[in-house]
Design goal:
By secondary structure, the protein is mainly alpha-helical. It folds into 4 domains: 193 residues, no CATH class; 146 residues, no CATH class; 106 residues, no CATH class; 87 residues, no CATH class. It is 46% helix and 2% strand. It is built from 24 helices and 4 strands. Strand 3 and strand 4 form a beta hairpin.
Length: 546
């Protein structure tokens, strides 16, 4: 293939499609004619701006009188952040864009633009197609993502990679079904939004990474590829956290993010790891927050990230599971998240190292923590109903005993079924509303005020009352003459729940009823009928000779 009569070298960082438009203009060719020349020897142009085929690069070099190495950096495949493989894309054939889109964080249709840069040399930069690039460090402006006239991204042509308007600063987006009508808005005339100094400084660090230079991450120099991956991964994580309803207290830009979130599908939720926010300002602020954390030492960065973790919704997977499901956990991010989650570490790790009982035996723990102690020290710390929370508190106290190693064993030591121990711990461990250290501190205070009673012996005494009636008849005669003899089992259930602080489901009376549902309704009616004096006298009757 012979070279064109007029030759021009690409500008530093110029995208391949932009360079070809310049080449066509200086040779007074239409962009369509230039594409025909490139295809004359069979060079495929399908993935021209993303991952051009080696034969296409050779054809461009021949036409322009260049060496193929002069075109390095003109396509997205040359930037490690995108993880695009030329061979993989070509092997995917006509569906190669799907493989690229699945990796996320790349503009396949359209690009961003700095109007001032475009007005200066009419050169479109390759990195403008990377969402991680939000700011022009030369002019301290945010990049523009939409043409104000056609309301589409610049260079959003679907018929050809090269615009019919060539290297002109007009938008050139097709306005109809074909390429004949194009948007004529002058992109160089757009007034871009000024970026704050933090965004400019962060973008300079990102540009260093895109140029292959090491960048400091968590106190030490990291290879460019690692920095870019960690920046993107942490930004995605912060975007998911900022999507929570109460995120405005942590990120002033969360309100802008929620505006965009409202326009996205509500069936799958935001897929920030694939498609980041379109608004350049929001994306810049999220990247700034991520980069600011990465620029600190590990402990300080972990503390700053931990402030975000209060936004994590309660799930059965716990905080770490929720976070890991929403970003790519690189080794660096794993260290950072683990450091940030240290105050929220699994309760079992804390219980293994904290003597909450002060040497007291497990039988001094009731199956359910007394209501008054729970309300005094633990109310609101577990996002579960009080009965489940009180049961969990008792299980934690039993789990803290040196000889108890599992939740199932803790339940059995309290006289509960093993499944209650496992299921309650699973339900509550992920629903703590405070760091684990604070929860165990409050739990220790409650343990100090527990009466020094043998609750197992008390439960055995109440169980024996199931087969005795004289004590109940005496209580009725003296304190509640209007009480029916049929309420004896309900009185025993009341003692089980309120005197022994045992779990309602393990009461020894339920198997004495044919209709359990009716029995529980009748018990609630009996319970609500008791006065304070009735309760005190009934408790006293428990300790009298039957």
């Amino acid at each position: 293939m012979s070279a064109l009569p007029v030759r021009v070298r690409p500008h530093p960082g110029q995208a391949l499609d932009s360079y070809l438009e310049h080449l066509a203009d200086v040779n007074q060719l239409t962009t369509a004619k230039l594409i025909s020349l490139l295809r004359a020897d069979g060079a495929p142009t399908r993935y021209l701006p993303v991952a051009p085929h080696p034969r296409l690069l050779s054809a461009v070099a021949d036409l322009a009188g260049l060496d193929v190495s002069d075109l390095h950096g003109s396509a997205l495949v040359d930037h490690s952040l995108t993880d695009i493989s030329t061979a993989g894309v070509q092997a995917a054939g006509r569906y190669g864009h799907r493989a690229i889109a699945a990796k996320g964080w790349v503009f396949l249709h359209g690009t961003q633009v700095c109007p001032t840069c475009l007005a200066t040399d009419r050169s479109w930069q390759t990195v403008w197609r990377l969402p991680i690039v939000t700011t022009c460090t030369t002019h301290s402006d945010h990049l523009v993502t939409f043409c104000p006239s056609c309301r589409r991204p610049p260079r959003d042509g679907r018929h050809s990679h090269l615009r019919p308007v060539g290297a002109d600063t007009r938008c050139g987006n097709p306005l109809g079904a074909g390429p004949l009508l194009q948007c004529q808005h002058d992109l160089a005339s757009i007034i871009a939004t000024a970026a704050d100094p933090d965004s400019v400084a962060r973008q300079r660090r990102t540009n260093d990474g895109l140029a292959g230079e090491p960048v400091t991450v968590l106190g030490s120099a990291a290879p460019a590829r690692q920095y870019l991956r960690n920046l993107r991964g942490l930004c995605v994580l912060l975007l998911h956290l900022a999507s929570q309803p109460t995120a405005s207290d942590h990120a002033p830009w969360a309100g802008l993010l929620h505006d965009e979130l409202a326009t996205r599908t509500d069936q799958r939720g935001p897929r920030w790891g694939v498609r980041p926010p379109t608004d350049t300002t929001v994306r810049a602020l999220a990247l700034d927050a991520a980069d600011q954390i990465l620029s600190l030492d590990l402990e300080t960065a972990g503390s700053q990230l931990a402030a975000w973790f209060s936004l994590i919704p309660a799930t059965n997977d716990g905080p770490l599971g929720w976070l890991a499901d929403r970003t790519t956990m690189t080794p660096t991010l794993t260290r950072l998240v683990t450091t940030g989650l240290a105050p929220y570490r699994r309760i079992s790790h804390h219980l293994d190292t904290r003597p909450l009982l002060g040497g007291r035996p497990v039988h001094h723990i009731p199956q359910v923590l007394p209501t008054d102690l729970y309300e005094k020290y633990l109310s609101g710390l577990i996002d579960r109903v009080d009965l489940t929370g009180r049961t969990y508190a008792s299980l934690c106290l039993a789990r803290a005993a040196p000889e108890v190693r599992t939740w199932a064993e803790a339940a059995e030591r309290l006289g509960l079924p093993a499944t209650i121990g496992t299921n309650t711990a699973r339900a509550c461990s992920a629903r703590l509303t405070v760091p684990t250290d604070e929860f165990t501190r409050r739990l220790a205070l409650a343990a100090e005020e527990l009466p020094r009673l043998d609750y197992h012996a008390l439960e055995a005494t109440i169980t024996r009352r199931v087969h005795m009636s004289r004590w109940f008849a005496e209580w009725v005669r003296i304190w509640r003459p209007e009480t029916r003899n049929s309420d004896r089992l309900h009185a025993i259930t009341w003692l089980w729940i309120h005197a022994a602080h045992a779990h309602p489901d393990t009461a020894p009376t339920w198997d004495r009823f044919d209709d359990l549902r009716t029995a529980k309704t009748q018990y609630r009616r009996f319970e609500s009928s008791l006065t304070g004096g009735d309760e005190r006298s009934l408790t006293s009757a428990l300790h009298k000779r039957a």
